[in-house]
Amino acid sequence: MATPDTAAPFTFAHQPHPSPMAADVRAEILANPGFGTAFSDHMVSVSYDEGKGWHSAEVVPYGPIPLDPAAAVLHYAQEIFEGLKAYRLADGGIALFRPEANAARFNASAERLAMPVLPEGLFVQAVEELVKADKDWFPTVEGGSLYLRPFMFASEAFLGVRPSKKYKFLVIASPAGNYFKSGAPAVSLWVSDYSRAAPGGTGAAKCGGNYAASLVPTAEAFSRGHDQVLFLDAVERKWIEELGGMNLFFVMADGSLVTPPLGGTILPGITRESLIKLAREEGLAVREERYSLAQWQADATSGALIETFACGTAAVVTPVGKVTSASDSFVIGSGGPGQITQKLRSRLVAIQRGEAADTHGWVHRIG
Ligand SMILES: *Cc1c(COP(=O)(O)O)cnc(C)c1O
Fold it and tell me: 23-41 pLDDT, tens per residue?
C-alpha cells in the first residue's frame, strides 16, 4: 500500500455548478427532505493512483461519474463509505459531529479492504469544502441536518483478484429530515437466521458488501411486518450483535446499560461510543459485554430489563419495542420509548446542535 503523499492544507479546485437547482425547488425539498433521496448541487472528488498518491482534489457539480465497465469495484466490491451529519447550530453556525472519528474509521475500513488510507485532514477538509459550497442545502424543518456520505471505490479497469491501483474518493451531501422525532414509536425487530459478520470477516469495516449481504434478511424482516433486522453472532448463534446499520443498548431496571463488545464482527459506531461516555457521565454503569437473545427475553419478561434502543448517525437513537424470532416474540417494557432512552437521546442531540456544552470537543465548527 502506498503511503499518501499529500500534506495539509490541501488545495481543492472549485468548479461551481453552472445551473444549480432553482431556489424555489430547493426550498420545497428542504421543507420536507425525507432521507437519502435529494442531493445538493456539488460533490467532492479526489483521485488516487499508485505511485502518485492522492491528487486532483476538487469540488465539482453533482452528477454521474464516468466508470470503465471493468472497474474493479463493479466486480469485486472494493468499496467503503462513511456517514456523518452537518448541523445548523442554535447560533446560526454550522458544525460537524466528530468528523475525525469518521476519518479514522474510514482508514480502518480502507486497511481491511486493501485500499490506500486517506490523510485524516484530507477527509475532514473534503467534507468541510462540500458543506461550505452547499451551505444553502440545510433543511428548514426542525431536527433536520445535511447528511454527508464520503466513500471510496476501486476504479482501475482490470479483471483479476488483487487490490486496485486506482481509487476515487467522493463526498456527496443529502438534506435529511428528522425521521425519528422524540416520542417516535418504538421499532419492531426480526431476529434473522442469516449472519451479518463472522470472526475474521469484514463486520467491523463499513463496506458496501456488508450491506449487500444484509438486503435479503432485511427484506425478510419487512415482509414479516417488522422495521429492522437483528443479527446474532455467526458462531454460537446466541449472542446479540447489532442491527443492519445500528448498534444496540440494553437498559436494566437498576439503571445500568449493556452493549455488545466490539470484537471484529460489530461496526464500531461513533454514536455508540458517544453514548457510552454520556451515560457514564450521567452516573449510569455501562458494561460492554456479551448478552444473549435468551437472556434478553428472560430479562424483558421478568422486568430486569426495562428498555432497549438502537443507535447510529442517521436515526440517532431509536427505541426498540418488540422482538420476534422464528420461534418466539417478546415486548420490551411498555413497548414504547423508555425514559433513559429519551434522556440519552436528548443529551446527545443537544450537544450535536450546540444547545448543550461540548465538553468533549466533539463539535467541529466550520462556520
Ligand atoms: C454505520 C453503522 C453503524 C452506526 O455507526 P455510527 O458511527 O454511529 O453512525 C452501526 N452498524 C453498522 C453496520 C453501520 O454500518
Answer: 999 999 999 998 899 999 9
> How far is Cα 246 from Cα 272, in angstroms, rounded to an integer?
9
The backbone torsions φ and ψ at residue 220, rounded to the nearest 5 degrees and listed phi first, read -65, -45
To which residue does cell 437519502 refer?
A: 36
DSSP helix/strand/coil, 136: helix
pLDDT at 178 over 80: no
Q: pLDDT tens for residues 63-75? A: 999 999 999 999 9
145 lines ligand 1 (CB under 6 A): no
**Residue 56 C-alpha to ligand 1 middle, in angstroms?**
29
Residue ranges of domains in the chain, CATH in brackets: 13-176 (3.30.470.10), 187-352 (3.20.10.10)
In short, whether 313's Cβ falls inside 6 Å of ligand 1 is: yes
In this structure, the residue with its CA closest to atom 14 of ligand 1 is 245
Nearest CA to ligand 1 atom 15: 245
**Rounded distance, CA 196 to CA 340, Å?**
28
| More confident call, 198 vs 3 | 198
Asked whether 205 lines ligand 1 (CB < 6 A), one says: no
List residues bridging with 327 in a β-sheet: none
